[in-house]
Structure formats: structure tokens, C-alpha cells
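Q: What would this chain look like folded?
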Amino acid sequence: MECLIAAVRNGADAVYFGGGAFNARKGAANFTGDALREAIDFCRLRGVKTHITLNTLLLDRELEAALDFAALLYSLKADAVIVQDIGLAALIRKELPLLTVHASTQMGIHSIGGLRYCEKSGVSRAVLAREVPLCEIRRMHENSPVELEFFCHGALCMGFSGSCLYSSMAGERSGNRGTCAQPCRKNATVLSARAGQDEFALSTNDIMMLDMLPELAAAGICSLKIEGRMKSPEYVATVTRIYRAALDGEPVPDSKGKLFKIFNRGEFSTAHLTGDSVTTGHVGRAKPDKALIAEAHESVRQDRQTRPLGAYLSLEVGRSAELTLVSEAFSAKAAGPVCEAPNKPIDLGRLAEQLKKLGGTPFYLEKYEIAGSGYVPVSAINAMRREAAEKLSRNIIGSPDEKQAITAETVESNIRPAGAFAGEPIRYLRVRDLSRAKEPADIIGIDPVFPGETDPGQLKKPGKKLVLILPNVIMTERSREAYERLLSSGVFSGVEANNISEWEMGKDLPVRIAGIGMNAFNSAAATELIGMGFTHFMPSPELTRPQLKGLAERFGDRMIVNVFGRVPVMQLMHCPVKEYKGCRACRGSAGLLSDGEGRRFPLENVRFPDGYCLVRMLNSAVTDIRGEFKNSGISVFGAAETPDENENAPVTRGHWARPVE
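A: My prediction, written as C-alpha cells:
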């Protein structure tokens, strides 16, 4: 609550926070019980919007509780919920259609295709991926009515949001479930002939967009987002005050110096807004001096008076005094003692001064009228003002609406009925180079290193269905056009999409697979993907055997489980090899990265026609559940990478028998 008050009193137009469960900062002091309503009411009274985070991936057993919580938020008049899980978003759309939904940055929306999903799904605002450049923000705004929100200050994850499995694969703490252990902030080294020391090659500097606010506004950003849910009230107060002042055209002296003192990870960057300005090797430091702390404390001492008020005071002799306060469509009255005839003329100026004494409230006196010439003591005026202001506050807040009942049947009615699966499981082989497809397979997925240079005529494989694998990030239109050219060549029978922004690509092809990048974690998400036209989906590699079996009982004819291969644990738009060793014009294999425990993570890249790369950091161990899967009773498709590329590597069963938090 201290942080929330600090944000509001320093000029935030909206605040976002969690309500206990189902939010991506489970380690924060989130709001539960009466505190949740108090927080929403505090903001509502001051005209500040509340956006509540429901931004984790959910298990089937959690869907009812999450939807029930969304119903509670609607009854408490929260202004919006921020959602990552497309299954939950679909449930809210169907069961709580008047509740405003924002797409979390964890959805990874970074192109017009992602906004098309929002339009289709009734999502009114997208919190864009931090990697989106200014030119693409402008293009998205010009081609969609969906509101755009963007992080302007705070921590920058090295991995693309919503596509990071590093923490869960390293130790069962999932960033998609709100328990990220931040292994990227620990020591990591880019390996070459001579390994470096203490490079922290995955720990990025923080972002600071203070100089870019006019450009962001002109590009179509309607809301600037400050990361701060795990920070101190002094941090929240300082950063909010500085950005508020900059937007208002009254910059705080030494703004950048104060931002640096309150918290930093080396020099600030503007991320990828106008090119890659990210650097790594940084650890967090806060060195605020006494003066800066005193400024922060002073900034929250007084309530921010933002609600204009009209006051109408009636002083008729022989009748009770009456004060009416009006703010927007709300009003309240308070009665005082019977007015007496005055001994001397009424000092209207003195009465007005008493009406203006609204300290400790969010109100300020904009206009007033005083009728009559009766007399009451100043103490009576003050008492009426306090009573009327308190009543007005209660009227503005209002009472909670009746909460909609949510049951297991409510959720179940929105989930696709179980589908029968006939026959043996089908093998799906995923390769980077078709010449490596030597294992038996019914469908072969191709993940080209150079999509802009790939000749589709060289990809034909007699008797095999070919699927084009799309990466988790296709940032520019030129890159997207390269994949569209391949899809329209007639060579491919299908497509594997790995981001919600790709959901329409290859929509006319007979095989459409939602890859692991789509984060299918539950039955509602699977139902949504099938409704979007996907013929198959690959469930999240964070699911255990019992959880996979539960999905298979409903969707056995649609599921493809990844049974062999290195799971990509991070998707990087900033190349650590280039930063530490210089660009090597990598052709698929981009080297290795080692962590403080000596684990080695292969790096592979996709080279886009624009000249930029997406670098994937693969798990240090190969996931191999082929034997367990064969005897698991789960009859679905199996997917595998080429085994010969992973010889002599450590082996893991992933999350087959170890659930994530």
C-alpha cells in the first residue's frame, strides 16, 4: 500500500498490482482480502485507474479460482485485468464480457498480427514486448484500434517476455508462474577459446525512456508503464514524480541523476527502441542520498488533490445551514445548526477560505456559491465540510456490485469436449536443415536459419508433409514477408506458430500447429487455439506427466508432445556473442554460454533479412522422455529434434516428474 500511495500521490494516472495468486510477482507484497478493496477504492476516489495482474499461466485446476477472482475484481470495480494466459482471456471474454482485458507483455505481442488477435478476442489494450522498435510501434498504431502500452522505465529481461523457461528448467521456479528465480542476473560467460570471468552476460542494464517520451506519444503509445512492483516506496515515488513532471512539461532538476541514484544497473538504455542499445554485465545498485530520500518522503506526505469540487452553502436565517458538495456526477449534503441573524455583515471571503480547507482529501475547491445572510460559527462550517466530503467520498467509491457466481461447470462449459484419437501416435521431426532429417517421421518441421535466402524449391521431400516452423519473434514486416513467401510457395503442408502474433499466418494450410511458444498450459488455452484454427498444439514443456495426461484425455487427437530435444530456455534479441566477441555472422550455431555452475548452453540463431538475429539459448541438457512417453498411456503425436545433434550431452526428463512452482 505504501508503494501504491507513492505512485498515486506522485501523479500516476493508473496503477497495476497483484491480488495474491495468479500474478507474475508472487514475491511482492500483493493485495488480498480487505486490502484489495481498500486499494481499489483509494484509487477510484482519486480518479486513478486500477489494472490488476492476472498474468500467469494457469493449470486446469486453477481456472475456476482465477475466473472467480476476475469476477470479484469486476464487482469491486477494478478498471482492467492484465492477462497472459489466452485460455483465461477467452473465459473472461465469454463469462465477464464487461470486464476490460489488457494483454500482458508476457503474451509477447510485437506485431500487427498480435493486435489482430486482441481485436478478435475483445482485448482492448496490449502491453507491448519491450523489444519492439519505434518504427514498428508506429506501424501497429496506424493499423489497429487496440491501445498500446509500453514500459518506459525499469528492469529489462534479457529473454523475450513469455518465452523464457530458464528459471523453471534450472530449478522449477517458473517465470510464467510468477516465481522466477532470475538466474539471468547471476554470473554467465560467453565461451570461446578463452573464457571470461564474471561477465554476467545475461544481466542487462535497465531501461530509461525519459528522452523518448515525445516520440513514444507520436508513435501511438497511450500509456507509459513503470516497472516497480518489487521496489521500495521511495523508488516508486521518485520515478513516478520524474516521469509525471516530464509529461507535464515541468522537468525535475537533475532528473537522470536522481533516477540513477534511486536504482540502476549500470548505464541506462532505450532497449531496442531506436536500435539495440542493450548492454549486459550489470548488477543492481541503489545509492540514494539523504536529500533524495527526503524528497520522496515529502512527495507522499500530502494527498494529491485532483478532483474539482463545487460547494453550495445555504445560510437562510431561521433555517438549518446546508452544504452541498458536487464533483462530476456525484454529490453529498450536510446540515448544520439553525442560522441566526448576524450582528455584523457576513465575511464571505472568510467562509470561502473555510470551504477550501480540503487537505487530506483528493478534492480541491473549483467554484462556490453562498446564498443567504444567516450566521453559524466557523466550527459548524468546518464540521459540515468534513461530513459532506466524507459522504461524497463514499458516494464516489460506491458499494461493490453483486459478484457473479463462478463454478466448475462454468469453466467446463467453455472447454472443448474430449476428442477421440484413433490409431498409433504420429512422429513429428523438427530440424533446422532438411538434410539432417534422417529419422523416420510422418511430418517434418523445418526451422530455416536464413528465411530470407531459403529456396523453397530445394525443400521438397517425397512422401513427407513439410511444416514451416516460425520463430517466437518476427519483429519486422520485411522478416514476416520472408516467411509468408515460403508459406505461399506450395512446398509446405503446414505451419508451426510460436507467438500469438503469428496466429493468422498459413491459415489456409491443412496442418497448423501451435508450438510451445504459444504457452498452451490448460484446456481453456487448447480450446482457444483450436477455435483460432490450429489443427494441433504442443503443450508447454513446463507440464508434468499427469498434467499432460489430463490434457490428452480431452485433446488426444490434437496434441503433439515434445519428447526429445533441447528446450529453448531464452529467446534473445540482444546477442551476447556479438557484445563480447564481435559479430561472427553465425550460420545457425552461435557458440556457447556457461553459467556459474559450469553448465553449458548452446546458442543458435535465426538470421532475418533485415540483418538482425534472434538468438536462442538452448537448455544445457537434452530433454529425453521417449521411453517414459512410450509407456505413459498418453496416445498423442510425439515431436523430436534430430538426435545426432545432441550426442554426448547431459540428459534430463525436464518437468515430466518435477512440477514448476
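The CA atoms of residues 544 and 659 lie 6 Å apart.
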